[in-house]
User: What shape does this take?
Amino acid sequence: MKKLFKEVLPVAAIVASAFSVLTVTSGSTQANSASQNTTSTTQTTAMAVLPGQPVDLSAAAEKALPSVVHIKYVQNSKIQTVEVQSDPFEDFFSDPFADFFGRGQQGQGGTRKRQIQTPKRTATGSGVIISADGYIVTNNHVVEGADELTVTLSDSKEYSARIIGNDKTTDLALIKIDGKNLPAISIANSDNVKVGEWVLAIGNPLGLNNTVTAGIISAKARTLGANGVESFIQTDAAINAGNSGGALVNTDGQLVGINAMLYSQTGSYSGYGFAIPTNMMNKVVADLKKYGTVQRAMIGIVGGEVKNFVDAEKEKGNDIDLGTMEGIYIDKVVEDGAAEDAGIEKGDIIIEVDGKKMTKMGDLQGVIAQKRPGDKVTLTYLHNKKKITKEVTLRNEQGNTKVVKDADLDILGADFREVTKSQKEQLEINYGLEVIKVNAGKMKDAGVPKGFIIQKVNDESMKTVEDLQKAVKDANTSKDQVLIIKGIYPTSKRGYFVVQLAE
Assistant: This one.
């Protein structure tokens, strides 16, 4: 199971750790040993009869189940070069003349490079059909890095899937299968869900396909620090490994969220799960379809919840009175951002956006995540305890309102290939991308010559053309829009170039 804190390192969050809910195996698929807290397939958990609340949720389950799919992820075995700690005895007996001939210099600093073959990895997750022509929403961590994706419907039909787009910041991905008249789910307005409302979590946890669990909405607009943008719906419906990308539905069988995480000390369900609200999902899906990348709007502030700021000041011995204990305290105003342009200052407190009360960061992120650069919002904030209302035009990370396009390698105007075995031996390198042709484009503008071998871009290793594609995409959606390219000439001379992606 993939942990959101990079596999092995725990992340403290109150007294628990945040885990994603994707069942992962390395080599052959293994059963998850965590205790099973879900009910048996297509059954809901027992619940007490509460006044005004429905008890029989079978109609909602029957309506939503056909829309939830099983996703199998495959990452094929690969050869990787890694640095390992040198063992002088092993090194001597494997090559006793290494030091004499200088071959031991590759392991400077007590390390040496070794090629290893990574095992084939498989994983399972869930997804939700949102259109009859085959568009499926799931979590980014369910599909990221996959070489193969297989989607199985509730009627056991199988399809190969391709990734249309993904967004790591919200942990959402859009994939597509070639099908017609598929059972698309009905999508509800997630802003209308209420704390205490009954919901169902549907997915494929612990290898158990088409499983339904029931619970209530425990909280809204939760932030856990696992993704860049968060406004989770919290539920006590049981969510386990394999539920990632599955559906959280209301009593009408309508989608209100995409199940994403559980909150646990053990990695198994222990009371609470978290789903990405559909209103955030809808905007991400629309952007991926139209632009290929998410058009992310920003107010241009850095801050946090007022209560957290006040508590921190009190711990320092400072007596502070901001006039409220709710809202978003602005600790920094970003230069050339929307907030600065509107005259908002450090120390101001945002209390409403478009008339909606802002009590915590999840509220603010949830509203802004549904906007695009160029959209206008009405901000109400406190300045020296005085209430002020202003209209603010949101901007993108680059400080303007232009559409951020999903750049590909065409923007560079060059062709690339992975270095050959003879090039590795001649130049004493382990990886790189050779520039085999330079046409009109950004690479030519920066002076990158044919034959130059790219090894690093923005400090990331370039081992495949896909690595370069990702680097270009990431840089193009960043504030700087710059590629810092480091590498080696055919003469063994080291060099670097700065490639400007902005027009």
